[in-house]
Design goal:
Helix content is 48%, strand content 12%. By secondary structure, the protein is α/β, with parallel strands linked by helices. The protein has a 7-stranded parallel β-sheet with strand order 1-4-5-6-7-8-9. Strands 2-3 form a two-stranded antiparallel sheet. 51% of the residues are buried. The structure holds coproporphyrinogen III.
Length: 344
């Protein structure tokens, strides 16, 4: 049976859109926390195929989502490139900020092979997943991963990384190139291990000038997609230039992606008119409405359903947070599939 997600990604519109949620496997689920507690740390967890496969499957079992997303992280590729990454509770990811001279030492050769437990997770999940459900593999957008490598942690404005791009253009291009090549290899391995769909998370596409967006986002993304296609992989690729605004349209036109994911700020009706004809798009329920629940959430779901036209995949504009109530995730899914849900 062809999965509903693959149907929409091939350009079909379905009366009931397929649904999955970014960060659907995560801390809002007690069964996730149980497995999480058995892992030494987050990176070790990502590199434990049995555990990672189990938590990838949990939201499918509990919610009957239409797709599973591989449990891994966009910051595994820097590890493959020879950098240290660790997670501090309450602070998120931490890295040693990369310098111009470090960039020349990145180990591009073999980077994707050094994170090979991830591909084992993919094949374990695909073996257990019902054929009607699609498995999504992913990588980070080179710019987004580069911001963590340059800044050493998440920061709201990315000013340090942008400054680095202006002041060290050659080193920046080398870094993006290293990330594009290794990320393409990473996606190729995931596709070969059984991922049905690939997604590029460009979570920090916000606030870039048009020139920087072209250089830091469009160019390396196009390079990833060209490399994946050159390897003979024809599987659909979803791009997520979160917060890119109007430049998301340029991204849709110029990177070679199959489909585009919209962040919370995107008006789905106007966006449709600007996209290449019938390009499938995904989005974009406000994660805050999901946290609040009740009528706020009911109305927000209704708005997404009413304003999204053409081939549409229902999702959030960003990820599920730990405080989300399980009842409300059920309610959203029921609303989409039956017309209303029991919101709390
Ligand atoms: O369920 C899924 O969506 C699949 C797995 C997945 C994770 N991270 C698991 C995770 C995916 C697709 C990602 C992508 C990712 N990772 C992005 C892009 C998407 C986005 O959210 O913008 C980014 C920027 C990262 C980097 C990252 N990883 C951060 C900033 C954090 C800390 C955030 C936090 O909420 O603490 C992580 C950790 C992380 N990745 C968790 C999960 C489930 C929480 C870790 C835990 O259990 O302690």
């Amino acid at each position: 049976m062809t999965s509903s997600l693959l149907k929409v990604l091939s350009g079909e519109r379905l009366d009931i859109p397929p649904i999955w949620m970014m960060r659907q496997a995560g801390r809002h689920l007690p069964e996730y926390l149980e497995v999480r507690a058995t892992a030494k740390n987050f990176i070790d967890f990502c590199f434990s195929p049995d555990k990672a496969a189990e938590v990838t499957l949990q939201p499918i079992r509990r919610y009957d989502m239409d797709a599973a997303i591989l449990f891994a992280d966009i910051l595994l590729i820097p590890i493959g490139l020879g950098r240290d990454v660790w997670f501090v509770k309450g602070k998120g990811p931490q890295l040693n900020p990369i310098t111009v001279s470090d960039i020349a030492k990145l180990t591009i050769e073999g980077a994707a092979e050094r994170v090979s437990p991830v591909y084992e997770t993919v094949s374990k999940v695909r073996a257990k997943l019902d054929p009607s459900k699609a498995l999504i593999g992913f990588c980070g957008g080179p710019w987004t991963v580069a911001t963590y490598m340059i800044e050493g942690q998440g920061s709201p404005k990315k000013e340090i990384a942008k400054r680095f791009a202006y002041e060290n253009p050659e080193a920046m291009d080398d870094l993006l190139q290293a990330l594009a090549i290794s990320s393409a290899d990473y996606l190729i391995h995931q596709a070969n291990a059984g991922a049905d769909v690939l997604k590029i998370f460009e979570s920090w596409a916000e606030g870039l000038s048009p020139d920087l967006f072209e250089r830091l986002v469009i160019k390396p993304t196009r390079q990833i997609i060209d490399l994946v296609r050159d390897a003979g992989i024809t599987k659909p690729i979803i791009g997520f230039p979160r917060g890119g605004g109007l430049k998301a349209v340029i991204y849709a036109q110029n990177t070679g992606i199959t489909a585009i994911a919209a962040g919370t700020d995107m008006p789905m009706d106007s966006f449709r008119k600007l996209l290449p004809k019938d390009m499938p798009y995904q989005g974009n329920l406000d994660p805050l409405a999901l946290r609040i629940g009740g009528d706020v959430l009911r109305q927000a779901v209704q708005t997404v359903l009413e304003t999204s036209t053409g081939p549409h995949i229902f999702n959030l504009g960003h990820g599920v947070t730990p405080d989300v109530k399980i009842e409300n995730v059920h309610a959203v899914i029921n609303h989409i599939r039956t017309g209303d849900g029991d919101y709390v």
